[in-house]
Structure formats: structure tokens, C-alpha cells
Amino acid sequence: MTLASFGPINSSARQEQTHPLTWRLRADGEPVWLDEYRQKNGYAAARKALLEMAQADIVQQVKDSGLKGRGGAGFPTGVKWGLMPADDSITTRYLLCNADEMEPNTWKDRMLMEQLPHQLIEGMLISARALKTYRGYIFLRGEYVDAARNLNRAIDEAKAAGLLGKNILGTGFDFELFVHTGAGRYICGEETALINSLEGRRANPRAKPPFPAAAGVWGKPTCVNNVETLNNVPAIVLNGVDWYKSLARPGSEDMGTKLMGFSGKVKTPGIWEVPFGISARELFEDFAGGMRDGYTLKCWQPGGAGTGFLLPEHLEASMYAGGIGKVGTRMGTGLALAVDTSINMVSLLRNMEEFFARESCGWCTPCRDGLPWNVKILRALEKGQGEPGDIELLEHLVRSCGPGKTFCAHAPGAVEPLGSAIKYFRAEFEAGLA
């Protein structure tokens, strides 16, 4: 089974002007190598950026487009780029691609890297030119073996074609790009933990400030962007700001398109490139086909295991950060999970919290000690051995590990689904009390 077969890619998804991320995908799910990528207008944006545009103009165009990070945090990309120093005397700078996709129920970046490796390379090349960086790293989840192989082959092809290395396109601009496979830690999705790991250190988040733009890899200015984020850059450069903004549905505060999906007991689980502002119901019913026969939707998560649970009535929400925020949680990665009525929420949360507790770096006390306590209590409730006060203690731990209480966003993400599950399904937790 190819990754593309996880979800159908209809003919409209191959239209260059409406589906910039996916229109180049092959129907058979095989990788698009250099010759085919060029036939599909590949590297045209890179030529425009390197030969026709000033570096500051590239940054401004990305900023004006409204492109935001696609890794889950949603920070404006152009603003992040603008934090890099303007001083040309600082010649050592780094561009990092965060490809450590370890959020449970998320595999969008994997599809792009396995099937469209040159699109990521082109995005990084343009970004490097804009940021005046001369070396880049793709920090890749170690388990993504096929992605590593395809990216390395694509890098070799780009080097042979003069699109990476020295004096690219005769402009005097040099850019070297390397794939670095990680050792398998969820915390490396946090950009400063990723930087520490790349340097060969323990993957702990760093105190900020200084931010990576001032002192990142080996103390040098560094910009970290997500895979899907960088894949948007070529189309923005080639087609312009107004076109990019027009892709989103009216009313959406987020611009462009997004890879979104649904998994669980739905009829057609998959990934689709859709406009920001699409309703969750449209994604669930028209794309995922609704629940399989014999199953009923109980609740759903909008974007990975670190987002809160929502009820079926919340499917009316619009899929963009503000739209999902209105119903009480975060957009996250945009790959949703449908939970059916046969699932016990205590068991589901016990499984999730075990993952988050195991992946804690142990740097700060609320996360290091609080998450294992969640697991201990949930295991007791699952066995019907909970004690009076256990649910209140879980709620206390949710607050103690919430935003602003920990060193990084790991613990807040870990307890958000727990807090929402207690809110909507408290009776299932109470059933576990002895």
C-alpha cells in the first residue's frame, strides 16, 4: 500500500492553481523525481527567487501572504523570518526543517517527503536565499526510512543539476543541504530541543530568549520551519500573495490550503489538501465518508493527540485556528481522529498519557512528575480501583501542567485531551471509582 492510497486524491487536487501542495502527486504514489518535477514546473519558483527577486522581497512576500507554521503552533512564517539578523557580516546561519513528525495520528509530512522530495528542497532553497543561510538540515524522524532514502536521492539529483551546492544558477549563492535522522524523541518537535539534538546534546528545550534567530545551532542565527510550511514557499513566490490568500474560504483568518485528514472508524480515512475554513463536518462527511456502518461518532480530535476532544455537534466548526479555538481547543496538525462509541475514554486517555509521560524530557517538575501521576490514576480508574478524589486530582494536574506552568508546550499538550475528556465524559471516569 502506498501512502497516497490512505486517502483518495481527486482530479481537482491535481490543479496547480487550487492545490499547490499536492497537484504534482502521481496516481500510483511513486516519488516524483527531478525530471518529472521539472516537467511539472518544478524549480521555476527557485529560478524566479534567485534570479529576479531581492532577498528582502522574498521575506516580505511570504510575510504578506499570511503563511503560518504548519507544525501545530501556527506562528506567522514571515514574522519568524524577519527575526533573522539583517547584518550581512554574520555569514554563518542555518536553516532547519523540522521533519520530526512524531505527533500521534499525524503523517502529512511523511507523504510530502516520500512522494514530493524536490518540492521540499525547492522550498528550502528559496527560504535559504531569503534568509541568507548557506547550510540547511532536514531533521528527520528516524523511523521515516523511505523518506530519508528519497530525500537523499533528491538532494543528489539537485546537486548534479546545479540546484544545490556552489554558485547555484550562476548567482554566486551557495547552499548545502543534509538529511539528519533523529533518534526517536517526541520532544524534538520543539525547535530548541531539535537544535540540541542536532548538536549531539540531550534533547531538552532551551530557555528563551535568546531565540534561535539570535543564537541557534552552535550559537549561530537559525530559522526552524516545518516540512509543510516550507512546501508552501515555492507556490507563493511563483503565484503571488493575492492568489495565495484567495485559496482560503471566506471568513478564515488563516491563508492558503492545508493538508487535513481523518482517521479512526471512518469509511475513507486519508489526507486531503483543502482550503482553510472548510467545516469539520465537510471534511468528516464529504471527504472521510462519515463513520463506517455499525459505528457511531462519539467524539473527535481536530489535530493530533495533543488537542482536546470535541463532540459531534462541534463538527460545524471551521477548520482554522480561530474556528477551532471558538469550540475550545486547538487546530494542531489538522489531522483529525474520530472516536466511536465503543471506545472507553478512560482506556483511551490512559494510552495517550502513557505516551506523553514516556516522551517527557524530564526537564521540569510539573511534566516530569505530573504526567506519570496521570498515568497511575488512569490505570487505577481503568481497573475500577480508583479512589475518592482521584478525578479532582486529575483536574488539578491538568491545571498544574497547563500553558505557562511548564518549561515548554509538551505537558500542556499532554493534558489538554485529558481535561476535555473529563469535561465531556466525566461519568466514564466516575465509573472507575471503587
From TrEMBL:
<dbReference type="InterPro" id="IPR037207">
    <property type="entry name" value="Nuop51_4Fe4S-bd_sf"/>
</dbReference>
<dbReference type="GO" id="GO:0051539">
    <property type="term" value="F:4 iron, 4 sulfur cluster binding"/>
</dbReference>
<keyword id="KW-0874">Quinone</keyword>
<protein>
    <recommendedName>
        <fullName>NADH-quinone oxidoreductase subunit F</fullName>
        <ecNumber>7.1.1.-</ecNumber>
    </recommendedName>
</protein>
<comment type="similarity">
    <text>Belongs to the complex I 51 kDa subunit family.</text>
</comment>
<dbReference type="InterPro" id="IPR011537">
    <property type="entry name" value="NADH-UbQ_OxRdtase_suF"/>
</dbReference>
<feature type="compositionally biased region" description="Polar residues">
    <location>
        <begin position="8"/>
        <end position="20"/>
    </location>
</feature>
<keyword id="KW-0408">Iron</keyword>
<comment type="subunit">
    <text>Composed of 13 different subunits. Subunits NuoCD, E, F, and G constitute the peripheral sector of the complex.</text>
</comment>
<keyword id="KW-0411">Iron-sulfur</keyword>
<keyword id="KW-0285">Flavoprotein</keyword>
<dbReference type="InterPro" id="IPR037225">
    <property type="entry name" value="Nuo51_FMN-bd_sf"/>
</dbReference>
<dbReference type="Pfam" id="PF01512">
    <property type="entry name" value="Complex1_51K"/>
</dbReference>
<dbReference type="InterPro" id="IPR011538">
    <property type="entry name" value="Nuo51_FMN-bd"/>
</dbReference>
<keyword id="KW-0520">NAD</keyword>
<dbReference type="GO" id="GO:0008137">
    <property type="term" value="F:NADH dehydrogenase (ubiquinone) activity"/>
</dbReference>
<comment type="function">
    <text>NDH-1 shuttles electrons from NADH, via FMN and iron-sulfur (Fe-S) centers, to quinones in the respiratory chain.</text>
</comment>
<dbReference type="GO" id="GO:0046872">
    <property type="term" value="F:metal ion binding"/>
</dbReference>
<keyword id="KW-0479">Metal-binding</keyword>
<dbReference type="GO" id="GO:0010181">
    <property type="term" value="F:FMN binding"/>
</dbReference>
<dbReference type="InterPro" id="IPR001949">
    <property type="entry name" value="NADH-UbQ_OxRdtase_51kDa_CS"/>
</dbReference>
<feature type="region of interest" description="Disordered">
    <location>
        <begin position="1"/>
        <end position="20"/>
    </location>
</feature>
<dbReference type="InterPro" id="IPR019575">
    <property type="entry name" value="Nuop51_4Fe4S-bd"/>
</dbReference>
<dbReference type="GO" id="GO:0048038">
    <property type="term" value="F:quinone binding"/>
</dbReference>
<feature type="domain" description="NADH-ubiquinone oxidoreductase 51kDa subunit iron-sulphur binding">
    <location>
        <begin position="346"/>
        <end position="391"/>
    </location>
</feature>
<dbReference type="GO" id="GO:0051287">
    <property type="term" value="F:NAD binding"/>
</dbReference>
<keyword id="KW-0004">4Fe-4S</keyword>
<keyword id="KW-0288">FMN</keyword>
<keyword id="KW-1278">Translocase</keyword>
<dbReference type="Pfam" id="PF10589">
    <property type="entry name" value="NADH_4Fe-4S"/>
</dbReference>
